[in-house]
Specification:
Largest sheet: 8 strands, mixed
CATH superfamily of the domain at 359-603: P-loop containing nucleotide triphosphate hydrolases
Shape: globular
Strand content: 15-25%
């Protein structure tokens, strides 16, 4: 665990917090939303403190009240419909009921917030530097020129290359990681004492996530910040947090020092979250633990434990009285569970079986279902009013792959490396520029109904992939009707079978997509993909936007279905821990090329390519103290443009072991370094002219 080191604030005169006093005190916070159709009790009875320079993490599933609690601290909940009660004190000043004018003086100056999606938080029509300088002009009286100079300093501090030339760029000209860095620069502009980071690494590549985590830790030490980190990523929490509060249904279920939460868990919900995380140090033969059901949506005053319906320890008394936080250990370790004393070994709470078919996982598998040779997918770049072409995006640039029946090929890499384009080419959503794709020995035909039936796709966002006006039963039945696979009665029966297969009630077919949770919608997407009995399903980031508990349900579901049907899966993701859990073989992509391909255990146990090593080094371990961030190799810089990829090895511009004059000039071939192991790196396979 990393603890912030006090190195002196940039403006010592503003350090008014008394020694030993808390920076933030929240007592009995409650937030309800009075909507026309219902009342939602988003937060109830939350009490917590944050000390100066401390990192405090709020974790829990979506809808647990994490973000709402901190929006209340910022005074950003509009009334109505929001009604906030209790007490929120920042350096002793009461926030609830504070006049709007005074709140505006505090925001940015004393407390700042970094939001989850920087593109929607940054104004798209204002230059980045102007937005960073705005708070300096408002709170510090800076002139426009002085604010611009300070914005350049801040952009440089947060790692934006060539800050003086990028300060006048617009948000869309920054990559996702750069936009998040710009948001951090904006938050730091007036040197606040409290920084609230609301899911700042969600949906970012694992390498960019690691960079943002390191950056926040660095600026925390430099500026003597207290940080409240809101997240559902327990791996990140283990790496950064001093103390943790686990929230469920608007209440704190467990709180305490990070090491106690992870190693001496005293609430079944916390235990379930930890057991549902795929880990690099855990055998893949074990299924992920699943928390049954969905998070509780609280509309009325609770009478019993809100976790009662999903809890493996639920018994007499759990539904009768609302449990309060009580001390269960040293250093303010508290749990709101009447059965906390029964949790000496929390790993036994959540029964998990073995992964189906794992015993044959490293056999040859079945026949080759998908064969890709020399695949290139290039997109023309058009600019100007005349839409004239001026180059190409080399999204996929010379890929060879085989996928066997009954096996899963994991495809990993950063955003922009070509993973999704490869998947779309497989399902004939984009046309190859060059090369071949054979499905069951037959060349792909974009006009063939047969091809579209045997290869299906599960998209990252199931809601945007469904017609919101169609009922779920019709969504699932659509492939059956298009391919004329049965009579109306047979189609209705098949839809019922599919709903049952993915764990949804039969009457779900009569409802619309918006009536389901994110995890349930992804189950519907799986059912739709299975409808036409495909031979191959391409899964494009199917769990990246889901909570860890829901992610576990979907991962286990895909494993069960593959074991039952023998279909092949192509699993595209940037989460290497999830890919390890589901895959038999893994291909690593960088700038449109495969740089390493190997059986799963070999690749994770002994990666050969420097890029693969960097990806694995960036994966956080969900246990404090397991990884030493100071000794890990971090991948620096952004992915080069696929419109103009570097000469030689495309990774040489970011590679920590690149050889000058070799890697920048000679392109390495993808060669077999060992039986079944393919790698594209001069340090593994030296060019013939350099061999002894």
């Amino acid at each position: 665990m990393t603890t912030a080191t006090a190195v002196g604030p940039r403006n010592p005169s503003r350090d008014t917090t008394a020694a030993g006093a808390n920076l933030l005190d929240i007592e009995n916070l409650a937030v309800r939303f009075d909507l026309p159709s219902e009342t939602i009790r988003a937060v109830s009875g939350v009490s917590l403190t944050v000390a100066p320079s401390e990192t405090f993490a709020l974790v829990g599933e979506s809808g647990s009240g994490k973000s709402v609690s901190m929006l209340a601290v910022m005074g950003l909940l509009p009334a109505p419909p929001a009604f906030v009660s209790g007490s929120i004190r920042l350096e002793g000043r009461e926030i609830i009921g504070m006049p709007v004018r005074e709140l505006k003086r505090i925001r940015g100056r004393d407390v700042a917030m970094v939001f989850q999606e920087p593109m929607s938080s940054l104004n798209p029509v204002h230059r980045v530097g102007r937005q960073i300088g705005e708070s300096l002009r408002i709170h510090r009286g800076f002139t426009r020129a002085a604010a611009r100079r300070r914005a350049i300093e801040l952009l440089d501090r947060v790692g934006i290359p060539s800050a003086s030339s990028r300060v006048d760029d617009y948000p869309h000209e920054f990559s996702g990681g750069m936009r998040q860095r710009a948001m951090i620069a904006m938050a730091l502009a007036c040197e606040p004492k409290l920084l609230i980071a609301d899911e700042p690494t969600t949906a970012l590549d694992v390498t960019v996530q690691a960079q943002i985590v390191d950056l926040v830790r660095e600026v925390q030490e430099e500026y003597r910040l207290a940080v409240v980190w809101i997240t559902h990523d327990l791996g990140v929490v283990a790496e950064i947090a001093d103390r943790v509060a686990v929230m469920y249904a608007g209440r704190i279920a467990e709180t305490g020092p990070a090491h106690a939460i992870y190693r001496s868990t005293r609430h079944p919900y916390t235990s379930g979250l930890l057991r549902s995380i795929p880990r690099l140090d855990r055998p893949v033969t074990t299924r992920l633990a699943e928390i049954p059901g969905s998070p509780l949506r609280v509309a009325e005053e609770l009478r019993g434990c809100p976790f009662d319906a999903r809890c493996p320890l639920a018994g007499e008394g759990c539904g009768e009285a609302l449990p309060e936080l009580e001390d269960v250990g040293a250093d303010r370790h508290g749990s709101a569970c009447i059965h906390h004393h029964e949790m000496s070994d929390s790993s036994d709470l959540w029964s998990v079986g073995s992964v189906p078919g794992e015993q044959t996982m490293y056999g040859e598998g079945g026949d080759v279902v998908v064969s890709i040779r020399g695949l290139r997918v290039h997109f023309p770049v058009v600019r100007g009013l005349r839409r004239s072409g001026s180059g190409v995006i080399r999204a996929v640039d010379g890929v060879d792959l085989d996928v066997r029946r009954g096996r899963t090929l994991g495809v990993v890499g950063e955003s922009g490396c070509g993973k999704t384009t490869l998947g779309r080419a497989l399902v004939a959503l984009v046309r190859p520029t060059e090369g071949t794709i054979d499905i069951e020995g037959n060349p792909i035909d974009h006009r063939s109904g047969r091809h579209r039936r045997v290869v299906q796709m599960i998209f990252q966002d199931p809601f945007s992939a469904m017609n919101p006006g169609m009922r779920v039963g019709d969504v699932i039945a659509e492939p059956l009707r298009i391919h004329r696979l049965g009579t109306p009665e047979e189609i209705r029966e098949r839809v019922s079978e599919l709903l049952d297969q993915v764990g949804l009630p039969t009457d779900a077919g009569r409802r619309h997509p918006h009536e389901f949770s994110g995890g349930q919608r992804q189950r519907i997407a799986v059912a739709r993909a299975l409808a036409a009995d495909p031979e191959v399903i391409v899964c494009d980031e199917p769990v990246s936007s889901l909570d860890v508990s829901v992610q576990a349900q979907v991962v286990n579901l895909l494993a069960d279905i593959q074991a039952a049907t023998g279909m092949a899966l192509v699993f595209i993701a940037h989460d290497l821990a999830v890919v390890r859990h589901v895959s038999h073989e893994v291909a690593v992509m960088y700038l449109g090329e495969i740089v390493e391909r190997a059986p799963r255990d070999q690749l994770y146990r002994e990666p050969l390519h420097p890029y693969t090593k960097a990806l694995l080094a960036a994966v956080p371990a969900p246990e404090p103290g397991v990884l030493d961030a100071g000794t890990r190799t971090r991948l620096v810089g952004d992915l080069p443009s696929p419109e103009d990829p570097p000469a030689g090895c495309r990774f040489h511009t970011r590679c920590p072991v690149a050889v000058e004059g070799l890697c920048s000039t000679i392109k390495p071939a993808l060669t077999e370094a060992a039986p079944g192991r393919w790698v594209s790196c001069h340090l593994v396979n030296p060019p013939r002219q350099l061999r002894p």
